[in-house]
Amino acid sequence: MRLSDWTIADPESTGLRSEPLRDLIEWLDSFGQANIHSILVVRHGRLLFEHYRPGEDQCWGEPLGNVAHGPESKHDLRSVTKSVISLLFGVMLDRKLIKDIDGAIIDWFPEYLDLRTPEKERVSLRHLLTMSAGLEWNDYVPIADPKNSEMCMLASADQYRYVLEQPVVAPGGQVWNYNSGCTLLLEAEIAKAAGGALDDVAREFLLEPLGITDFAWTKNFKSGILEVGGLRLCSRDLAKIGQLVLNGGNWNGRQIVSERWVKESTAAHIGPEELTYFYGYQWWLGRSLLVEGREVPWICAMGHGGQRIFAVPALDLVAVVTAGLYADPSLGRLPLLIFNRYVLGAIVSED
Fold it and tell me: Can you say whether the dihedral through the CA atoms of 275, 276, 280, 284 is positive or negative?
């Protein structure tokens, strides 16, 4: 990776205090269970804080042992990949390769003509983007539970059929239900629209324009399909994804994805009933308080195990966290705690 990809500066140069960031390192040193692997803070387009830690890691469930993470270490993104797919979907729309997000999803899969029903014809691409397709799906039970829909999908001989054959149990657009199958179908549509393999399409239309050349995408060992959350990137490249959002789709003077799509996809469209977060097009939307009590909205890509990209337009700030918190869901709140207490706690100026 080129070290020149980011201009490195002192936190104080952009209105951040160094003390809370140093306190963060000390806190992590004293908290052995944290297993945080990287924390990066970017403000006004400059890399202000970069901290890597060794820790137990995985590649799509396969143990990697204790990894000495650093700037060139690729890391599982898990469902952060979904937000990358949202950006790539926007590129397809910008290039007219996908013409209508309100078109029926079943139209993209003529090979499954036997699954076509009036109910399925009313499920649109927009519903996939907002995870409100209304398909029967349960990702809330443990992975080992045979009722876990994502695990059933991954074990299926035909993953696309598995998703498409699920019964419609709610009108599209009305009920939010976390469904990785929605993203799987979006990935298939992107590949079909561009006429290539998904990883090649991502490389050509999104990653290489961002200067991201070192990436991997884990494949399902049975089907050979790219895993829905299988993208692996370095932390500095994760920060580029967040900066692209802050820049309205522009990177170094090049409009990679339209500003219109970035605004639309990172706006709140629907929300989980049990959470205070909202959901856009494969992006999470939330808010935090600064020390002085001001409410600050943020955009977030979230992945299992503690993977996060926070983008804060009001502060022109990006924060990245990667971690190995796969086994203990109770530790999944650590990235938000780090962001609220230490990153936002370091803000002293908005200039």
Answer: negative
pTM: predicted TM-score of the whole model, two decimal places: 0.96
Q: Which long-range contacts (CB under 8 A, 24 or more apart) does 214-219 make?
A: 214/1, 214/72, 214/74, 215/74, 216/74, 218/59, 218/60, 218/76
The answer for residues whose C-beta is within 8 angstroms of residue 278's C-beta and 6 or more apart is: 268, 269, 270, 271, 284, 285, 286
* 117 within a domain of the structure (yes/no): no
Residue pair 202/153 in contact (Cβ under 8 Å)? The answer is: no
315 in any annotated domain: yes
Give the Å distances, CA to CA, from 213 to 135, 234, 246: 36, 10, 21
Range of the domain at 25: 3-73+235-346
Q: Which of 104, 162, 103 is nearest to 136 (CA)?
A: 162
Q: How many domains does the chain have?
A: 1
Rounded distance, CA 266 to CA 331, Å? 26
**pLDDT truncated to tens, each residue of the chain (351 aa)?**
344 589 999 999 999 999 999 999 999 999 988 999 999 999 999 999 999 999 999 999 999 999 999 999 999 999 999 999 999 999 999 999 999 999 999 999 999 999 999 999 999 999 999 999 999 999 888 888 889 999 999 999 999 999 999 999 999 999 999 999 999 999 999 999 999 999 999 999 999 999 999 999 999 988 889 999 999 999 999 999 999 999 999 999 999 999 999 999 999 999 988 778 999 999 999 999 986 788 999 999 999 999 999 999 999 999 999 999 998 878 889 999 999 999 999 998 554
In this structure, the strands spanning 7-8 and 46-52 are parallel
59 within a domain of the structure (yes/no): yes
Residue 262 Cα distances to 24, 39, 43, 250, 323, angstroms: 31, 24, 19, 10, 27
Indicate the SS3 state at residue 48. Answer: strand
Helices 235-246 and 80-94 cross at an angle (nearest 10°) of 50
Question: Do the domain assignments include residue 149?
Answer: no
